[in-house]
């Protein structure tokens, strides 16, 4: 992002635009129902920035960053009556063949670093401080895989917005001034059918994704009856304006368990943009012509959060401790 120098580390908590990294942990938890649990969580969220410094300062070149996202139910518990305009639980999507489930999650921690041991250390201390106030619902350790490829072999992340386009696409603006600078975050954990994918000829795989496999060049399929993943995920309004999101997907897996996945994470200024992408992928455009990537990739989770700016997060937890 303009004006930022990422050699200046540690990185502030809640930096949506922190650099893409070699390692990441995606941790989703629910907060237990009692008031003490809520107070504990509020105090840990209040100390998140210090925790990033405590671990991040041990190796500045590790560029540790952490973003906490807050789900709609937890937001209501922390701050009833004042919340980001579009924030609501993930809406399940039902297509003719494939569906996207909505799964539980009050908090998302998106932890990134150049070293997986830094992500691990941060997560360990974070969970230790949260103690019995939360229940872990999902935990995924992702890694950067050659040329930033997903496990299907395609370079993933190329069309991400850069420079000034990044905040314009990913960060809330004046349309919701109280929450400006924050971001809607949607996550989905996908598992791949690698055998079926391997049997699919490369030119068909390329038509499905919308890019060539080796060179990562876009394929024009505007006139094709069956659109690629890339085209279905391209959102335009009636005036022809394109709406991007910021993705930081990571591969993960355990070959010994035949587990091969992509952890999808999208940050967006507007939640409706990601919802529209999902509609086009699952229902299809035109209806029925769904994203064939889904014939090989199944979502096992689906959760929506809002990641406030660091000062907005501080306000939120202070408000909550004042109220509690
Ligand atoms: C199995 C899960 C997924 C995989 C493996 C995957 C992979 C890819 C790949 C390889 C590309 C092309 C290169 C690039 O621009 O990054 C791409 C593009 C894109 N994907 Fe996905 N994706 C997945 C799920 C999703 C989901 C769930 C969404 C949105 C809800 C999404 C949104 C996008 C967008 C916006 C683009 C860029 C389109 C453009 O402007 O060219 N992807 N994805």
Protein described:
It is a single chain. By secondary structure, this protein is α+β, with helices and mostly antiparallel strands. The chain has one domain (23-323). The chain contains 10 helices and 14 strands. α1 runs antiparallel to α10 and α2 runs antiparallel to α4 (116-130). The model has no long low-confidence stretch (mean pLDDT 95). The structure holds protoporphyrin IX containing FE. Residues 150, 152, 154-159, 188, 190, 209, 211, 229-230, 233-234, 245, 247, 262, 264, 266, 274, 277-278, 293, 297 line the site of protoporphyrin IX containing FE (HEM).
Helix content: 25-40%
Average pLDDT metric: 95
| Count of helical stretches | 10
Tell me the count of domains.
1
Low-confidence stretches: none
Question: How many extended strands?
Answer: 14
Question: What's the overall geometry?
Answer: globular
Kindly, what is the distance between the CA atoms of the first and last residues, rounded to a whole number of angstroms?
37 Å
β-strand percent reads: 15-25%
Indicate the structural class. alpha+beta
Order of helix and strand elements from N to C terminus: EHHEHEEEHEHEHHHEEEEEHEEH
Question: What does the largest sheet look like?
Answer: 6 strands, antiparallel
- Radius of gyration over C-alpha positions, nearest whole angstrom: 19 Å
Bound molecules: protoporphyrin IX containing FE
């Amino acid at each position: 992002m303009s004006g930022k120098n990422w050699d200046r580390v540690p990185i502030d908590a809640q930096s949506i635009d922190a650099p893409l990294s070699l390692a990441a942990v995606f941790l989703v938890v629910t907060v237990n129902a009692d008031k003490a649990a809520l107070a504990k969580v509020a105090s840990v969220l209040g100390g998140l920035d210090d925790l990033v410094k405590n671990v991040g300062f041990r190796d500045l070149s590790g560029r540790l960053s952490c973003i906490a996202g807050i789900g709609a139910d937890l937001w209501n518990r922390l701050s009833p009556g004042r919340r980001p305009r579009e924030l609501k639980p993930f809406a399940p999507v039902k297509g003719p063949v494939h569906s996207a489930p909505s799964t539980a999650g009050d908090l998302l921690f998106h932890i990134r670093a150049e070293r997986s041991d830094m992500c691990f250390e941060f997560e360990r201390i974070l969970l230790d401080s949260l103690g019995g106030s939360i229940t872990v619902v999902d935990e995924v350790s992702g890694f950067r895989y050659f040329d930033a490829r997903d496990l299907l072999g395609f370079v993933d992340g190329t069309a991400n917005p850069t420079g000034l386009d990044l905040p314009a696409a990913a960060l809330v603006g004046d349309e919701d001034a109280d929450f400006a600078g924050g971001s809607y975050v949607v996550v989905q954990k996908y598992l791949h059918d690698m055998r079926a994918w391997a049997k699919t000829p490369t030119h068909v795989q390329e038509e499905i994704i919308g890019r060539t496999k080796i060179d990562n060049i876009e394929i024009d399929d505007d006139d094709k009856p069956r659109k690629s993943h890339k085209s279905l995920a391209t959102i335009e309004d009636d005036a022809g304006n394109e709406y991007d999101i910021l993705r930081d997907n990571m591969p993960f897996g355990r070959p010994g368990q035949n587990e091969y996945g992509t952890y999808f994470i999208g940050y967006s200024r507007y939640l409706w943009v990601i919802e529209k992408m999902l509609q086009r992928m699952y229902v299809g455009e035109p209806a029925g012509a769904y994203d064939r990537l889904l014939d090989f990739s199944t979502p096992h989770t689906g959760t929506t959060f809002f990641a406030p700016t660091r000062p907005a997060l501080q306000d939120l937890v202070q408000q909550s401790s004042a109220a509690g």
